[in-house]
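hey
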């Protein structure tokens, strides 16, 4: 049985919400993706605190599986990863600024140069030191975020002095629409990228994020950088997810009460009971990062497939009632055995699943009119976090 770690900063006896993070499921997803990639190197994205799950436990688990390459957003995250895996090759996505240059040097980190300004900064820093350190180069192929443009690439290639002033060990670009396999932009970006890399025959190539892995081997190249799929999210918006859920979120029931027909519930009186109903109130709200839009009642949101979120208890899906508030939400428990429910509540034994195996991450995202990335990265600090160790972590400990 998986061992569980209890973080010092949270006391499960006192919290009203808890997260269980299954690191073996994370590892299984890692190997599932590696199986699709074949000989392509895996370099997981652990940015935004490993998508809200926690850099330290995620990097430790993946390091034991032989992972030696990681992508992070900024230097702070890079230094955290370096402390956990001294031998790792760590790519920093956020670009470059002058005051950060010594930190890259001291920690042996690899900046991803995303502008002509970045290139000049990096080249000049090492020129005065009469040495050179590796870097990576980001070239835009259509997403129009970070990355030098195609015209800037042409300028760089034609300027021999500038072109030879850096030593990129990896050339990357980022896909804009890979989660929709039929989108024509995918082929456009692939063809542009194939032209770009002709200028860098000795550098590794990286185009594939999570969704691109599922597009096929043409997109894999030398190094893939999965993110959301690793953490249990669906990388293909047109197909069912094949990844294991990594995060389970549960809320403690604070109170059970019966309301009469015609009574309203919550702010704005947005729900009026069509009949007598039993409600349970759970100590999780938008103050914990659980989206208010899951209320599905009296809240403006994007077009969605279901009108409200739901909890899960004893094999039943229990719809949210009224508006979700900062610290609390209500669910309809009318179909559950009331005597059993009351007895469990009085024993302080009632926790309702709000995200996990029975309530997929992407269902919560669709209900709230957003994406799974946002759900994970906004998980709040009030939850008690339990980390279930992977098999190799158990053996090591």
């Amino acid at each position: 049985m998986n061992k569980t770690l209890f973080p010092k900063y949270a006391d499960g006896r006192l919290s009203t919400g808890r997260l269980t993070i299954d690191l073996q499921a994370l590892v299984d997803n890692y190997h599932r993706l590696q199986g699709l990639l074949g000989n392509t190197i895996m370099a997981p994205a652990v940015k935004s605190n490993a998508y809200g799950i926690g850099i330290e436990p995620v990097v430790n688990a993946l390091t034991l599986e032989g992972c030696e390459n990681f992508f992070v957003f900024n230097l702070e995250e890079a230094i955290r990863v370096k402390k956990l895996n001294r031998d790792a090759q760590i790519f920093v996505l956020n670009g470059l600024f002058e005051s950060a240059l010594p930190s890259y040097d001291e920690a042996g980190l690899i900046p991803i140069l995303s502008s002509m300004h970045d290139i000049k900064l990096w080249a000049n820093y090492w020129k005065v030191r009469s040495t050179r350190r590796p870097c990576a180069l980001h070239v835009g192929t259509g997403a129009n975020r970070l990355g030098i443009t195609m015209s800037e690439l042409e300028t760089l290639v034609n300027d021999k002095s500038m072109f030879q002033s850096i030593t990129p060990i990896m050339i990357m670009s980022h896909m804009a629409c890979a989660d929709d396999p039929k989108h024509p932009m995918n082929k456009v970006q692939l063809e542009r990228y194939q032209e770009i890399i002709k200028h860098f025959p000795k550098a590794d190539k990286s185009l594939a994020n999570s969704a691109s892995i599922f597009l096929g081997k043409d997109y894999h190249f030398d190094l893939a950088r999965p993110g959301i799929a690793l953490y249990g999210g669906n990388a293909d918006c047109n197909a069912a997810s094949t990844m294991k859920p990594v995060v389970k979120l549960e809320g403690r029931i604070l109170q059970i009460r019966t309301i009469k027909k015609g009574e309203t519930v919550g702010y704005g009186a947005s729900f009026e009971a069509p009949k007598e109903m039993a409600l349970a109130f759970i100590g999780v709200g938008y103050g914990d990062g659980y989206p208010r839009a899951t209320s599905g009642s009296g809240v403006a949101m994007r077009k969605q497939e279901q009108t409200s979120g739901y909890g899960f208890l004893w094999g039943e899906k229990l719809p949210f009632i009224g508006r979700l508030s900062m610290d609390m939400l209500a669910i309809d428990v009318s179909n559950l055995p009331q005597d059993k429910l009351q007895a469990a509540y009085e024993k302080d034994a009632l926790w309702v699943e709000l995200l996990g195996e029975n309530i997929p991450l992407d269902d919560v995202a669709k209900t709230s009119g957003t994406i799974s990335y946002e759900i994970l990265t906004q998980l709040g600090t009030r939850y008690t976090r339990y980390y279930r160790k992977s098999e190799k972590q158990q053996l090591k400990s």
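The two ends are 14 Å apart (CA to CA). The first strand starts at residue 4 and ends at 5.
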